[in-house]
């Protein structure tokens, strides 16, 4: 990560060229970073190669010598915002908060203590201003379209024993399942018929799903639908991540969950923080759209821990950030603990948007589980993605990573986006005719009246 010194972004035509450029520059002793591409570049390649201003001319010469002439170069400019501070606000907030807002307006990087302040303040006008700033940055960086993605939870077997998780290996109270390849592809076909462009293949860390089996699924999805694929299958060796990328995986979600090493060790009795960190670095190096996230309300977690998580997302150039409250799961050591706080989770969503700017932030299923309205609240706090649960009904209740999971469906997503927050659904989405009807009664449908 580069501070203060002017830097530039090299924009490749696609992810393969981006990796070639990055490797070429590193080989010639030019320090680079892989970061989310700026809004004006669109979606051609979601990752940019960042270089210091002092290395710009050498980088240009190397690209020219290698015959890479289509790459574009942009100055890495600050996102400047006007109008966050008005006279009325100045009378109702602290001087410290005004200083932080001025930084946000100017596009300056927030320090750890700034992030802690935003997460900690209990002044209503300051909290309102935080959400307003997050929503403004969301609009400026990723626009008004809420991305819709479909998830398939294809196995609930897991070799790990995370203390908060209901599918931990030692939990004997749940019914285990593995979907067949045919079942997976049937759901993929349905998602494709809706026009969805991304399918999320998620499971526990299941040894049955070996690299060849995963690769076979990846190739089938690509060959039959051309959809983008997000994998969320846990920690794997570098070689497997590399082969999954070659076979068609575009994104990978591997949550850090907490950056506090001691807390990580406590909640992951058979895991290692440095291994998780190394996996995230490998995924970034391999050119994945890199996903991470954290859990709000873990026992012993502090506001400083959450601030550290947000800094990690920023400094690692994470592209997708899932932020959800802790929810107890039956059969886990934490089953009797209190759920995480919705308000703090929403505040974390907002501050993450402010700090990380152009990233995908889902309005998580966990939030929707604690309150049906929380999904809407998260969209207003800076979130821009909704994940539909498309696991077959006969398996859904067994993917019990936490209790009473809200199975967010297409109707819930359409209601949240169009009716509740007046945002836009993606143009690729093919809605059933009844959902296109502006007079459709969502409330009555949810209550079983239609």
Question: What does this entry look like structurally?
Answer:
The protein has 450 residues and is α/β, with parallel strands linked by helices. The protein has three domains: 7-75, Alpha-Beta Plaits (2-Layer Sandwich); 87-142, no CATH class; 147-446, Aldolase class I (TIM Barrel). It has 19 helices and eleven strands. It has helices at residues 15-27, 56-65, 87-92, 95-106, 112-120, 124-142, 181-193, 211-225, 238-247, 261-267, 273-285, 303-315, 342-356, 365-370, 374-380, 393-396, 410-420, 433-436, 442-446; strands at residues 7-11, 32-36, 47-52, 72-75, 147-155, 198-203, 228-232, 251-253, 289-296, 320-325, 385-389. A seven-stranded parallel sheet has the order 10-9-8-7-6-5-11. Strand 7 (228-232), helix 9 and strand 8 (251-253) form a beta-alpha-beta unit. Helix 5 packs across helix 12 (303-315), helix 6 crosses helix 13 and helix 8 runs parallel beside helix 9 (238-247). The longest helix has 19 residues, at 124-142. The radius of gyration is 22 Å and the shape is globular. The mean pLDDT is 92.
Structural class: alpha/beta
Determine the CATH topology of the largest domain: TIM Barrel
Largest sheet strand order: 10-9-8-7-6-5-11
Q: What helical percentage do the residues reach?
A: 40-55%
- The number of E-state strands comes to 11
Low-confidence stretches: none
State the helix count.
Answer: 19
CATH architecture label name of the largest domain: Alpha-Beta Barrel
Name the helix and strand elements from N-terminus to C-terminus, one letter apiece.
Answer: EHEEHEHHHHEHEHEHEHHEHEHHHEHHHH
The CATH top-level class label of the largest domain: Alpha Beta
Question: Quick one: biggest sheet?
Answer: 7 strands, parallel
Instruction: Report the principal-axis shape.
Output: globular
Cofactor: [2Fe-2S] cluster; [4Fe-4S] cluster
Keywords: 4Fe-4S, Iron, Iron-sulfur, Metal-binding, S-adenosyl-L-methionine
InterPro entries: Aldolase_TIM, BATS_dom, Elp3/MiaA/NifB-like_rSAM, FeFe-hyd_HydE_rSAM, HydE/PylB-like, rSAM, rSAM_sf, Se/S_carrier-like
Protein name: Iron-only hydrogenase maturation protein HydE
